[in-house]
From TrEMBL:
Belongs to the short-chain dehydrogenases/reductases (SDR) family. One of its GO terms (molecular function) is oxidoreductase activity. InterPro entries: NAD(P)-bd_dom_sf (IPR036291), Sc_DH/Rdtase_CS (IPR020904), SDR_fam (IPR002347). Pfam families: adh_short (PF00106). One of its GO terms (cellular component) is membrane. PANTHER family: DEHYDROGENASE/REDUCTASE SDR FAMILY MEMBER 7B, SHORT-CHAIN DEHYDROGENASE-RELATED. The lineage of its organism: Bacteria, Pseudomonadati, Bacteroidota, Chitinophagia, Chitinophagales. It comes from the Bacteria. This is SDR family oxidoreductase.
């Protein structure tokens, strides 16, 4: 049986993406760190949509985790038709003052694990007559964000990598889509320890995880290359392109410092 594998799937956008695939009749594999949350999510999806669901607890901060996920799918007989690289996190603050280990862990989860999973699962995806790779970046991918510098840089990497890979795979069965959400009603701001000024600004334009997930899965099935969710976020990306980079950086710094 074919499955869609989703990382960061125990809550937030990842869980909503899993539910959006399941609502369309796809079997799903859920990956995240928390086993209890995964078990609850899997049970709810089975009940609500009647599809096959399995889950595995893995910390993608461990460089060996992607290979373990591939081995799990192979040993379980799970044919992966879609890979959703959603797992990621951010940390706000001045680069020089944040612990180096935490920033490197962010790079591992947001970039290195994504690349490793993509490389490992591509041969499996290519076996399918039609397959999908969905990478979740961020509207932060379109500009430097002072005091969120590493996070924004990792998401810029995800976007650029996705577009390059899409071209490389243009003559295969694998379609690559990169979705760039803006502020979303998840736990991101708390984990990133974003200050009250940025949180207050985000609340004005927050999208729900369900709305982001629906847009992401729809764009993936349509074979779109790149999607910014939400009209405000699309406008923001356009303004960043239109105005001097220094102005965008000054504005962002005023929110996150």
């Amino acid at each position: 049986m074919n499955y869609i594998l989703i990382t960061g799937a125990s809550k937030g956008i990842g869980l909503s993406i899993a539910r959006a695939w399941a609502a369309r009749g796809f079997n799903v594999l859920l990956v995240a760190r928390g086993a209890e949350a995964l078990e609850a999510a899997a049970a709810a999806i089975r009940k609500d949509f009647g599809v096959q669901v399995d889950f595995r607890s893995e910390d993608l901060g461990d460089a060996a985790a992607p290979q373990r996920l591939l081995d799990w799918c192979r040993s379980s007989g799970y044919a992966v038709q879609g890979l959703v690289n959603n797992a990621g996190f951010g940390s706000s603050g001045a680069f020089a003052e944040l612990p180096l280990e935490g920033q490197q862990n962010m790079m591992q989860v947001n970039m290195n694990a994504l690349v490793a999973l993509t490389h490992l699962f591509l041969p499996e995806l290519k076996k399918q007559p039609k397959a999908w790779l969905l990478n979740i970046a961020s509207s932060a991918a379109y500009q430097a964000v002072p005091f969120l510098s590493i996070y924004a840089a990792t998401k810029a990497f995800v976007l650029t990598f996705s577009r390059g890979l899409r071209y490389e795979l243009r003559d295969t069965s694998v379609s690559v889509t990169c979705v760039c959400p803006g502020s979303t009603d998840t736990d991101f701001a708390n984990r990133a320890q974003v200050g009250p000024k940025a949180q207050k600004a985000a609340e004005k334009v927050n999208m729900t995880p369900e709305a982001v997930a629906e847009a992401a899965v729809k764009a993936t099935l349509q074979g779109r290359a790149e999607v910014i969710t939400g009209a405000i976020n699309k406008l923001g990306a356009f303004l960043v392109w239109l105005f001097p980079k220094s102005l965008a950086e000054k504005t962002a710094a005023g929110l996150y410092k």
